[in-house]
């Protein structure tokens, strides 16, 4: 009886092993079925925003065939969003480490105004004035880093305060009025010169996005920033200089915002004390919406590029349809809420899959 039972058990185990091997064979239907579906779902998530952008372009092209699908409109859309794209790239760095920088639009305004005041009113050369504008932007980054990293104040509070302070400085040094007449060399380097009908500032913004994408994806620094954003405690236990990385993210964001301010000053031919604030909401909307594309679940520069031009294509189309100017605020505000929700959903799914 015992020997017979043992033989049955051995035979059943062997059959179970054969069934397990059959189910796990790469070519079998059971194993091959889910994999293509998973890959298709992954590609769908990566390129869904690009498909939505294409749909927006097609719809408005059909509704306004004489004005929307024209070379002039394309050149205008690409060139006009360069400052927003650069600023949105700056937003990505603190977000990657799990922080917020609400001062970034004020930093842009400060950089633009300092550059214009030094060049136009103080007679500095354009190179020295640009250096002064970027230096002023970096001071905001230092204040943010000290407040958040050294004193442990939430980034939301610190950057809101530093941004408000920076706006006060802008109002003070400008006398609450626009400063015009900046050096034509800066104007030529941003909007005065064109390639394929598109201002050079667009190519500068696109190059910045590519460089930042390479840094975040393929360098140890980029991987450490991502690791800190996912779990600062685990990153610290792994030997990473978490505080330095967080501080560097704020400094990098302010540096990029300073560069955006210089480009903005060139595009305007001067500086305005208040218009820079209009970039804050679109920059965050683009960053969060971009986190649902290209590399879903992660703040990434190439996804941000797609998001910026998806949003601007929609706004331009609505304006051509006769929508009032306030529609732009409604569009960007709604896009931010939807983008945050989608981004959280995609990251949750990515975490669950992992």
- The averaged pLDDT comes out at 86
| Separation, N- and C-terminal Cα atoms | 48 Å
Radius of gyration over C-alpha positions, nearest whole angstrom: 25 Å
State the major sheet. Answer: 2 strands, antiparallel
Strand order of the largest sheet: 1-4
Q: Categorize the overall geometry.
A: globular
Q: How large a portion of the residues is in β-strands, by DSSP E?
A: under 5%
Helicity, as a percent range: over 70%
Number of strands: 4
Total count of helical runs of at least 4 residues: 16
Low-confidence stretches: 1-32
Structural class: mainly alpha
Q: Sketch the topology as an H/E string, one letter per element.
A: HHHHHHHHEHEEHHHHEHHH
Mind explaining what this structure looks like?
The structure is a single chain. The protein has 354 residues and is an all-alpha fold. Helices cover 78% and strands 2% of the residues. The protein has a two-stranded antiparallel ribbon. Strands 2-3 form a two-stranded antiparallel ribbon. Helix 5 runs parallel beside helix 10, helix 5 crosses helix 14 and helix 9 crosses helix 13.
Report a brief summary of the structure:
With 354 residues, the protein is mainly alpha-helical. The protein is built from 16 helices and four strands.
Considering the chains and any ligands shown, give keywords for the structure:
globular, 78% helix, two-stranded antiparallel ribbon, mainly alpha, 354 residues
